[in-house]
Amino acid sequence: MKTLTKSLSASLAAATFALVTPVAADTYVVAVGAASNSLQGKSAARFAEQLQEQLGDAHTVEFYADAQLGNEKELMQKLRLGTVDFTLISSIMTNVAPEFALFDMPFLVQDRAHLKAIDAEIVQPDLAPLARKAGLEVLSTWENGFRQITNNARPINTPSDLDGLKIRTPSSEWRVSMFKEWGANPTPMSFSEVFVALQTGTMDGQENPLTNIVGANFQEVQGYLSLTGHVYSPTYLTTGAETWSKLPDEVKTAATEVAASVQDWSLDQGETADGELVEKVRAAGGEVNEADKAAFIEASAPIYAAFSSQVPGGDALVSRAQELAK
Fold first, then answer.
1. How far apart are CA 52 and CA 151, in angstroms?
2. With bands split at pLDDT 50, 70 and 90, how would you rate the model's confidence at 241?
3. For residues 23 and 295, which has the higher predicted lDDT (pLDDT)?
4. Res. 258: pLDDT tops 90
5. pLDDT, mean of residues 261-280
6. Any residues with CB less than 8 A from the CB of 270 and at least 6 apart, and which?
7. How far apart are CA 25 and CA 85, in angstroms?
8. What is the pLDDT of residues 193-204, one digit of tens each?
9. Which of 27, 90, 210, 292 would bridge with 60, disulfide CB 3.0–4.6 Å?
10. pTM confidence score
């Protein structure tokens, strides 16, 4: 019987997985920590739906969003344990291999075509094998988006406007270092905790792609949106390396084909959504400004220097990525 579970209550999901009951051999679990109405959530849902269509009635694909089965870090561990088959991993991939911090270099990725070139020429041949050594199989690089800053204090035009602000970041040492370099007080925090932290004032602001900002309704608890575009943050469709090695060939083929299709779809959706989502923030009463990117780029030189000195082959990775934009 063909089943695609798009939504279950968090309590039911928690109870189910607390039992650590393995799913049937022909059942594949796709789960994300992102909000179901964010682009990450929609992309993962599309992957699950199309994978189900390709596999047919002989297999079952189950889909869970909104951190029902755990946040990004927890889902990464479940990939290794085999209790989740596919998830999306974004900024915390730098904890798997430091080379993934290439995407934490500010203003490196110029546009979505540049991202696709980096995926084909650097991620798949060079970075994916590093993840494989850590027990993860990266199947494709999808849209998360160009990251923007929201806060409740003031418009962010230059790095000096960040002075002293408590900014939530993902659990990425490079993102933390970046915001420290710019004068902020960054604090890593799981995405699922951010809304309440902003609402209560525990955090002054945060940085995320517009699809995540609006998908999680941050515009309801943030007064300012500053269009910095400081980092293009991809998200990686990932499975466990051991899980992947044991999948039937027809499942591998279907997952690979669907992943490539969803990559194009997610990039197109991200580009289309950028303008529409800015208007949603304005409609909610948010003040929107274009940041002085030249000032941020100038303030980012120490970040590139640190990456080149601390990450093996870091300088070459940056140079190769920059060349792909030409």
1. 40
2. very high
3. 295
4. yes
5. 93
6. 39, 112, 143, 144, 145, 209, 211
7. 11
8. 999 999 999 999
9. 27
10. 0.83
pLDDT at position 25: 53
Residue 115, burial from CB neighbour count under 10 angstroms (0-12, 13-18, 19+): buried
What is the distance of C-alpha 316 from the center of its chain? 24
Pair type for strands 27-31 and 60-64: parallel
238 with 169: CB under 8 angstroms?
no
Q: Which amino acid is at 168?
A: R
